[in-house]
Design goal:
The chain is mainly α and 124 residues long. The chain contains five helices and two strands; from the N terminus they run αααααββ. The chain has a two-stranded antiparallel ribbon. The radius of gyration is 17 Å and the shape is globular. The chain starts with a helix and ends in an 11-residue tail after the last strand.
């Protein structure tokens, strides 16, 4: 069985480790106990949306980025689970930055610059 809390914890741990930060630093910044954050990272506790928001703020990571990475890992885990042999699937790159180039005619039309491989474009 694929446990979402375990995937979420793995992604949170990687985000923290990429920044070279300790559990103590992040738990203090997020105002959550070190033990509870550790249990979340190990997939032993379900994190509420409020707690995830506090951890994301402490890590200076958008929750949407966190969830995108979790979603990609979940897709890979589901494919690997259902396949009879190992499957290699390209994972969409993280969209680290998006800049709004222009806004014309009000909020209905916004031009966004982003890496082409990270965006699916559909003509309306």
């Amino acid at each position: 069985m694929i446990l979402l809390r375990r995937l979420l914890g793995d992604v949170l741990r990687r985000q923290r480790q990429r920044q070279g930060r300790t559990l103590r630093e992040v738990s203090s910044s997020a105002r959550v106990s070190l033990g509870y954050l550790s249990e979340v990272e190990r997939g032993q506790k379900e994190a509420s949306s409020e707690l995830l928001s506090a951890i994301c703020d402490a890590l200076d990571v958008r929750m949407s980025e966190l969830m995108r990475e979790v979603s990609d890992e979940l897709s890979l885990a589901e494919l690997a689970r259902s396949a009879s042999e190992p499957v290699t699937v390209p994972v969409r790159p993280m969209l680290n930055s998006v800049s709004v180039a222009s806004v014309t005619g009000g909020p209905e039309r916004v031009t966004i610059k982003a890496p082409a491989e990270a965006v699916n474009v559909v003509a309306a």
